[in-house]
Each structure stands twice: as structure tokens, then as C-alpha cells.
Task: inverse folding
């Protein structure tokens, strides 16, 4: 529950904190950024990098071990017991699965980000709890920020432990600070000699927290005054779970990911040496954002892995199951779903691979591509799981164990659905991803011309903005209507060339539309989430189409010509979605919907809720002992570093 005695940040403070953490400069190119500016630059992503055979050979011994491990693991048992047995964790440690990207000199496998995401894709295709364990440790836990921002001394101290399998966790979220870190209450107070900090506070939903040896903890260090303005400082610390005052307060249980090692972690006067600060005082939130740029590459690959598993289930069942005289896959309604799933799965893998390949290439800013990949793949995968469940019919809703008991194959679509849903919430919810992408999408225009329309601008600021923006817009705007790009034939793309030409002209259309929206709404555009989100969705579709076309051409050149049909179908469908978004860009119903929502929130339609029973949650908190806590682990208190044992 939110603690009413603790003040929450105002909207302005929340925005200020987010702005401070933003990477404001674009030192390197970005295909997605160019898209939102109306400039289609396929040369930034095409040709799609072919597989790196040398890296694949290096990764093979590990990938073979991981494949053999995953083939024998019983995900049903992990789900049913809510525990990952220690022997399995040890086996993962022994094969180096906790140090995939840690450089060899520190005892890690020293593999690339691409090998890492392939490994996570494989694990996700079967088991959500296992991937949470591995990925929270390596995508957002200590190794990633340590690699990016750690000092040599920190690397020497922590990498060898992590490579051997010390589990790590990332602790940012708090009760009041979910999407909004400005509400963070955990503090890190410097000791008098300045050599240490005392951390006090509680972190919520910390994945691996109940089993971690090392944490990255975000905490507020003293505010600083800059130009008469107070600015909140958030700093990242490496905290060892063995430090006095670190306590697992609760093990938390969820709808899916039944064996995730997630908890409320309490820090009471935890004395952390200054040399455990990562990067620098006040840089914690920026560190979190930069870490997540690469951290976010894992989840889209995992979603593609889950989509592939669903495709296999749906394909097999749609062939096997005969109703109304035909395999159900031959009935058009089901066939449509299968075609959508296959083409979407292809595009999802293209998106995940493209974003990762751009990161590996270096000299490229992937912040937008990673955010789009996270948002796009998590949502696309959810629709695929939903369609798979529908195709499996009643069997899709039935638990695998129950299917097995009556002699059918234990195909766990319901578990996949439970495990998958969180992907749209953590590592940046879909809404927050859209806000993040929208902020970057309009950034160039804001920098150029915002002062012209901002009510509080002085005349001097307005004139300066006009002087700076006029030369840019004089050439940029007309060329968003007609441009040299229109003359390109994209012959190399064969059957997909028509989609490339569509991408070229639609990218210009997107650029114009964002500009028009800015002129129409001025500074109020920031609050027009529905409009901005449609523009973001158009950009995301265009990115996915580009990635799919480029990947299909690469695969076709290597002999896999069938990829062209998948990319073609994906693009045809994506174009329909794009056109729909353009048609409704200004949302003819947006205002009406907002008004209705406000009146619903005021309770003016509470009469709609009449005739329903009192929910359990309205009957007071469940008993801490007895059946409720046994089922949900609600309120269970465990000692420091103790692993919660499910009471059975
Ligand atoms: C299983 C699990 C594992 C997790 N693991 C970790 C972890 O390892 N480390 C960690 O630090 N955190 C972790 N989290 C926390 C997770 O990242 C947060 O749940 C997430 O950031 C969202 O915060 P919230 O749930 O408080 O939602 P809120 O911020 O309360 O948001 C609620 C809803 O409002 C929307 N919303 C919020 N603000 C806006 C806005 N300005 N505009 C439009 N919509 C908005 C959100 O998108 C969401 O739909 C985990 C959570 C879960 C459930």
C-alpha cells in the first residue's frame, strides 16, 4: 500500500527526474530515430548481418549443454512446486550459464550479446521461471552495469564471483516507485567521514532477490543544488547480500512464473563502501536506463522463443484435430490465425535479431530500437499465445497435468499464458515504452522549435528558435512530401520491393504527421498520449517491416527462399494496421473517451457495478497463517537470505 505519510512527487518533479536521466545527445545514428523524423534510411540496417559463424562455433559447446539441460528439465514440476531445485541451479552454474557475457579473463564464457539472447530464447521457449533467474541476473543484474560502468577494481572484485554463478538482482522498484522513480524513498546517507553510505529502505518485486548474493540497489543520495534548483540524486550501489542489515522480508508469488525468486528486500542501515558506487553519485537512473538499453534486448528474443513454441503447438494441433470433417487448420478462421502467427513470429525474430545486431556492430544508438523491440515483441507474442489457446480450444485452457492424467499430451498453453503476461509490464510497461519512444520521436522538433510555441518563452527565445529552425524546416518539410528516395526501385528486395517503396513513402508521411501534430497541439502534444501512441505504433510497425524485409532477403540469399513469403504476408498485414493508425491519428473519439473515463473515475457510473458479490479483497487482509498464506505466500516473513519454503 502507498504510505500516505510519505509525500509523492508532483508531475513536474517526476518529469524533471525522467529528463535528468535521459540521454540527451545522439552521438550515433539510429534507424528508428530517422524513421520518426520522416527519413527512411535502410542503409543503416541493411544488409541484415548474416550469422557470425565463428561466434556460433565458440558458443556451440555451451549451447549444446543448455539445449540438453532444457530438453530434460520438467517445467511442469517447477511450475507446480514453485521452486527451482538447487541441483538445477548448480548445473546451470557449472555450464557457465550465469556468466555468458562476462569476459573470459574473469572466468566467464565471454560470448556475444547475440549468443546470449539465443540462449535466453531457448530457455524462454520452455520455462519462464528459469529465464527470469538467468536473465534478471545478467540482463539487468550486476554483470551488465558492471561491464558498462564498473571500474577495473570493481570488475576484479565482482566478475569472478558472478562468473562462477553468484546470482544477482536489480533493485529499483518500490511501493510508490513503479513506473515513476521520482517517488523513490530508499536513501543512502553518507557517513561522517564520507567513506561509506548507510542504505535504508525497502525494494519491491526484486527478481532473484530471495536468492541473490549481489544486488544493484538504487537509492537516493543527498539532493544537490544547481543554479538555484534542487535536483534529486539517485545513485546505484553494488550491495552484498551478506552485509549486515540486508533482509528478505517476503517472498512474493505471482499469476505465472511460479518459481521466480522474487521478494521484498529490506535494507536497514546497510553500510556500503563508497567504492561500491557504480559510475558515480547521482548517475543511478541514467545507469539504469543505459543498462536497460541492452537489458531490453533479451526480452524480445525470449518473446520470439515463446512465439515459436506456440507456433509449433498450433501447427501440430491444427493438423491433428479433425472437426466438421476437416483438420481445424483448414477452416478459414483457424488458417487465418496460423498465417498471422507464422508471419508475426518471423518478424519478431527479425526485430530481436536486428536490434541485437545493431548493438553488436557498435557505433549505433540502439535506445529506440531496443524499446520498440521490447514493446512490439511482448505485445505480438501475447496475441500469439492467445490465438494458440483458442486453436487448442478447451485443451488450451486445461492444465497440462490434468491433460496428462486423462491420457492426453501435457501441452502447457495455459502455463505459457500465465508466465508470459508479465512481459508487457516489467522492464518498462507498454505504456512507459510508448512514452519513452514518443519523447525521443519528437525530441528533434522540440529542440528546434519548442520555444516558438511554448507559452512561457520570452520574445528573445522565440526569435532564437525561429532563427535556428527556419533553415532546417525550409528543406526538411518539402522533402517530406517529395524526395529522391521515391526514385529508388529496391530491386534487390525482389517481391518485397513494393514494401520497401511503401516504407519510404510512409516514413515521410509519419514524419509529416508528427510535425503536423506538433503544430496542431504545441506543448500540449506531450499530454496527447493517444495521438502520440498511434504515431509510435506506426513507427514500430515500420521498423518491424524493415527488419522483416531485410532478414528475409538475407535468408533467401542463403537458400531459405520461403522466408520471402513470411515477410510478404507480415508486411501486408502490418500495412493494414499502419493505415488504420493514420486514419485515426487524431482519434475522433479520444476526447469523448477521456471525458467518459473521468466521469467513471468520479464514480458517476458506479451504478454499473451493482449486483456483484463482495470480492475477497474487500473482506479484509487474509490471515497470515493458514490456507491463504500457504497458497499465495502472502505476508510470509523469512529470515535474512533464507529461501522461502512453500508450506505444503
Ligand atoms: C514478476 C515481477 C518481476 C519484477 N522484477 C523486478 C526487478 O527485478 N527489479 C525491479 O526493480 N522491479 C521489478 N519489477 C517491477 C516492475 O518493473 C514494475 O511492475 C513496473 O515498473 C511497473 O510498475 P508498477 O507495477 O508499480 O506500475 P505503475 O507504475 O503503478 O503503473 C500502473 C499502470 O499505469 C500505467 N502508467 C503509469 N504511469 C503512466 C503514465 N505516465 N502514462 C500512461 N500510463 C502510465 C502503467 O503502464 C501501468 O499499466 C517486477 C515486477 C514483477 C511483477
Result:
Amino acid at each position: 500500500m502507498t504510505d500516505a505519510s510519505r509525500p509523492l512527487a508532483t508531475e513536474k518533479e517526476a518529469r524533471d527526474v525522467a529528463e535528468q536521466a535521459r540521454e540527451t545527445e545522439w552521438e550515433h545514428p539510429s534507424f528508428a530515430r530517422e524513421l520518426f523524423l520522416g527519413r527512411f534510411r535502410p542503409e543503416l540496417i541493411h544488409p541484415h548481418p548474416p550469422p557470425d559463424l565463428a561466434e556460433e562455433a565458440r558458443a556451440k559447446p555451451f549451447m549444446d549443454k543448455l539445449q540438453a539441460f532444457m530438453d530434460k528439465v520438467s517445467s511442469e514440476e517447477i511450475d507446480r512446486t514453485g521452486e527451482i531445485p538447487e541441483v538445477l541451479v548448480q548445473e546451470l552454474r557449472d555450464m557457465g550459464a550465469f556468466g555468458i557475457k562476462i569476459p573470459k579473463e574473469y572466468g566467464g564464457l565471454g560470448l556475444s550479446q547475440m549468443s546470449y539472447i539465443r540462449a535466453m530464447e531457448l530457455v524462454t521457449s520452455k520455462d519462464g521461471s528459469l529465464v527470469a533467474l538467468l536473465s534478471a541476473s545478467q540482463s539487468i543484474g550486476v554483470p551488465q552495469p558492471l561491464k558498462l560502468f564498473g571500474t577495473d577494481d570493481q570488475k576484479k572484485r565482482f566478475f569472478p564471483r558472478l562468473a562462477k554463478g553468484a546470482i544477482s538482482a536489480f533493485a529499483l522498484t518500490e511501493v510508490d516507485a513503479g513506473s515513476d522513480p521520482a517517488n523513490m524513498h530508499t536513501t543512502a546517507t553518507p557517513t561522517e567521514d564520507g567513506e561509506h553510505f548507510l542504505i535504508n529502505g525497502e525494494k519491491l518485486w526484486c527478481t532473484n532477490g530471495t536468492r541473490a548474493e549481489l544486488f544493484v540497489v538504487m537509492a537516493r543520495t543527498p539532493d544537490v543544488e544547481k543554479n538555484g534548483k534542487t535536483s534529486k540524486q539517485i545513485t546505484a550501489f553494488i550491495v552484498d547480500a551478506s552485509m549486515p542489515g540486508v533482509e528478505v522480508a517476503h517472498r512474493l508469488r505471482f499469476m505465472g512464473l511460479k518459481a521466480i525468486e522474487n521478494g521484498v528486500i529490506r535494507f536497514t542501515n546497510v553500510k556500503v563502501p563508497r567504492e561500491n558506487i557504480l559510475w558515480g553519485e547521482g548517475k543511478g537512473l541514467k545507469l539504469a536506463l543505459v543498462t536497460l538499453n541492452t537489458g531490453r534486448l533479451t526480452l524480445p528474443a525470449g518473446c520470439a522463443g515463446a512465439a515459436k513454441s506456440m507456433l509449433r503447438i498450433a501447427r501440430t494441433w491444427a493438423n491433428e484435430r479433425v472437426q466438421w470433417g476437416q483438420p481445424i487448420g483448414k477452416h478459414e478462421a483457424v488458417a487465418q490465425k496460423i498465417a498471422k502467427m507464422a508471419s508475426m513470429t518471423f518478424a519478431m525474430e527479425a526485430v530481436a535479431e536486428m536490434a541485437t545486431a545493431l548493438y553488436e556492430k557498435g557505433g549505433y544508438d540502439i535506445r529506440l530500437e531496443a524499446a520498440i523491440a521490447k514493446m512490439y515483441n511482448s505485445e505480438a507474442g501475447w496475441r500469439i499465445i492467445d490465438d494458440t489457446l483458442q486453436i487448442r480450444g478447451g485443451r488450451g485452457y486445461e492444465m497440462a497435468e490434468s491433460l496428462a492424467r486423462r491420457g492426453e499430451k501435457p501441452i502447457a498453453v495455459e502455463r505459457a499464458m500465465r508466465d508470459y503476461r508479465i512481459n508487457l509490464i516489467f522492464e518498462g510497461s507498454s505504456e512507459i515504452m510508448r512514452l519513452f519512444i514518443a519523447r525521443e520521436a519528437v525530441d528533434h522538433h522540440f529542440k528546434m522549435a519548442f520555444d516558438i510555441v511554448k507559452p512561457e518563452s520570452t520574445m528573445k527565445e522565440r526569435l532564437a528558435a525561429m532563427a535556428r529552425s527556419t533553415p532546417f524546416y525550409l528543406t526538411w518539410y518539402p522533402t517530406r512530401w517529395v524526395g529522391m528516395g521515391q526514385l529508388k526501385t529496391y530491386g534487390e528486395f525482389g517481391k518485397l520491393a513494393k514494401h520497401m517503396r511503401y516504407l519510404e513513402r510512409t516514413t515521410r508521411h509519419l514524419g509529416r504527421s508528427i510535425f503536423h501534430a506538433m503544430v496542431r497541439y504545441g506543448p500540449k502534444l506531450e499530454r496527447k498520449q493517444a495521438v502520440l501512441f498511434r504515431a509510435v505504433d506506426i513507427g514500430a510497425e515500420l521498423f518491424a517491416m524493415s527488419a522483416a524485409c531485410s532478414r528475409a532477403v538475407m535468408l533467401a540469399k542463403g537458400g531459405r527462399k520461403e522466408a520471402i513469403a513470411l515477410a510478404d504476408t507480415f508486411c501486408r498485414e502490418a500495412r493494414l494496421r499502419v493505415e488504420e493508425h493514420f486514419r485515426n491519428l487524431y482519434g475522433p473519439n479520444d476526447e469523448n473517451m477521456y471525458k467518459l473515463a473521468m466521469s467513471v473515475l468520479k464514480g458517476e457510473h458506479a451504478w454499473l457495478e451493482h449486483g456483484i458479490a463482495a470480492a475477497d479483497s474487500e473482506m479484509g487482509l487474509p490471515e497470515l497463517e493458514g490456507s491463504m498464506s500457504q497458497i499465495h505466500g502472502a505476508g510470509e516473513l523469512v529470515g535474512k537470505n533464507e529461501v522461502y519454503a512453500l508450506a505444503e
